[in-house]
């Protein structure tokens, strides 16, 4: 076991990437990086980390911001519940910890959006607390090296790999070790085409010996992908103003803004859209389809088949939004991409 951790640490000393939060013991910055990088690649998340640190240098700055401001800065990163939870956690730190970000596992696990992995990472890096991290990269390294086929997304797998991670960790240098094994999984033991021939652990890797590298780790089958049909009503009044609504229900994009939405069970024809608007007492006007081919937006468990319908109104919209104000609203990427191409021509 000692050979495993020492080898990973040595590899890390020679191969670690130069990242802005590396070497920091500030739990706020470590927390920001961990939340942003959940389900996000470093090259995508790094610009967001830099934006957040610049906009909110301290947890008190983040706590004092509005949720709308935080969501707007987060726009495009996806999984928006992370941003909402992050903002709520910042306010908890401000109100219950006097603005001093906690660095122990027991305190960190109380924060919204902070689970075992994030609490372990921060506590080990900032306080030297001997708590091993188990993220997707760590699952992959441990599963392959020790030849474990227990599904990583099962409750039994979570317990088993946490125990295994505890047995192989380097407790005397836990912060560095946790970063090392995550980096090892990200760069060396990659999901696809890992560099097995040049791997310093290849002599003891059971998956390599058994020719099972591509089979491990094992995951239980994902839930079935759901297809949904979205019809956005892009209203334009005589003053070129439009409408956005805030999504308040739980589910995708909670608290983000979008055009008035009609969800259907299939693609709709213009006549059907007009009938729905008339029946449900929506604003009515001349209807045209922005593009014949729908936009297909893929989320983890949902595929959104989306059309944007332009509705030209004769009457002014009460509290309509002018084109120059649209950029102030946090919107899903799907809507953002539409606005980027449509606004230049029509708004």
Automatic annotation (TrEMBL):
Read off the InterPro entries from this record: A/G_AdeGlyc_MutY (IPR005760), DNA_glycosylase (IPR011257), Endonuclease3_FeS-loop_motif (IPR003651), Endouclease-III_FeS-bd_BS (IPR004035), HhH-GPD_domain (IPR003265), HhH_base_excis_C (IPR023170), HhH_motif (IPR000445), MIG/MutY (IPR044298)
| Superkingdom per UniProt | Bacteria
User: Quick check: keyword DNA repair in the entry?
Assistant: yes
Pinpoint the HhH-GPD domain residues. Answer: 36-187
Q: What is its EC number?
A: 3.2.2.31
Q: Which reaction does it catalyse?
A: Hydrolyzes free adenine bases from 7,8-dihydro-8-oxoguanine:adenine mismatched double-stranded DNA, leaving an apurinic site
User: What is the role of this chain?
Assistant: Adenine glycosylase active on G-A mispairs. MutY also corrects error-prone DNA synthesis past GO lesions which are due to the oxidatively damaged form of guanine: 7,8-dihydro-8-oxoguanine (8-oxo-dGTP).
Q: Which UniProt keywords apply?
A: 4Fe-4S, DNA damage, DNA repair, Glycosidase, Hydrolase, Iron, Iron-sulfur, Metal-binding
Gene encoding it?
A: mutY
Protein's recorded name: Adenine DNA glycosylase
Its taxonomic path starts at: Bacteria, Pseudomonadati, Bacteroidota, Flavobacteriia, Flavobacteriales
| PROSITE patterns in alphabetical order | ENDONUCLEASE_III_1
Protein family: Belongs to the Nth/MutY family.
Cofactor: binding comment: Binds 1 [4Fe-4S] cluster.
Q: Which Pfam families match?
A: EndIII_4Fe-2S (PF10576), HHH (PF00633), HhH-GPD (PF00730), NUDIX_4 (PF14815)
Q: Which cofactor does it need?
A: [4Fe-4S] cluster
Which organism is this entry from?
A: Muriicola marianensis
């Amino acid at each position: 076991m000692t050979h495993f951790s020492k080898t990973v640490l040595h590899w890390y000393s020679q191969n670690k990437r130069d990242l802005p939060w590396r070497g920091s013991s500030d739990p706020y910055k470590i927390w920001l990086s961990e939340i942003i990088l959940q389900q996000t690649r470093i090259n995508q998340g790094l610009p967001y980390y830099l934006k957040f640190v610049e906009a909110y240098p301290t947890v008190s700055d983040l706590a004092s911001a509005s949720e709308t401001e935080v969501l707007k800065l987060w726009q495009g990163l996806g999984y928006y519940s992370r941003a909402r939870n992050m903002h709520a956690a910042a306010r908890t730190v401000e109100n219950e910890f006097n603005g001093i970000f906690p660095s122990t596992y027991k305190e960190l696990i109380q924060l919204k959006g902070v689970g075992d992995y994030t609490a372990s990472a921060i506590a080990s890096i900032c306080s030297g607390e001997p708590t091993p991290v188990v993220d997707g990269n760590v699952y992959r390294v441990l599963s392959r090296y020790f030849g474990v086929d227990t599904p990583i997304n099962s409750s039994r797998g979570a317990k088993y790999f946490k125990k295994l991670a505890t047995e192989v960790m380097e407790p005397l240098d836990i912060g560095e070790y946790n970063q090392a094994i995550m980096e090892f999984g990200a760069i060396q033991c990659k999901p696809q085409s890992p560099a097995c021939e040049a791997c310093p652990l290849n002599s003891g890797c059971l998956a390599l010996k058994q020719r099972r590298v591509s089979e491990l780790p094992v995951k239980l089958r994902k839930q079935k992908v759901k297809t949904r049909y979205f019809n956005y009503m892009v209203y334009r009044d005589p003053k070129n103003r439009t409408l956005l609504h805030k999504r308040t229900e739980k589910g995708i994009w909670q608290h983000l803004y979008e055009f008035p939405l009609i969800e259907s069970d299939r693609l709709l024809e213009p006549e059907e859209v007009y009938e729905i608007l008339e029946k449900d007492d929506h604003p009515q006007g001349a209807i045209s389809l922005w593009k014949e081919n729908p936009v297909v937006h893929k989320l983890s468990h949902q595929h959104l088949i989306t059309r944007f319908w332009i509705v030209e109104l004769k009457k002014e919209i009460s509290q309509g939004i002018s084109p120059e104000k649209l950029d102030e609203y946090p919107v899903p990427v799907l809507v953002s991409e539409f606005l980027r191409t449509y606004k230049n021509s029509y708004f």
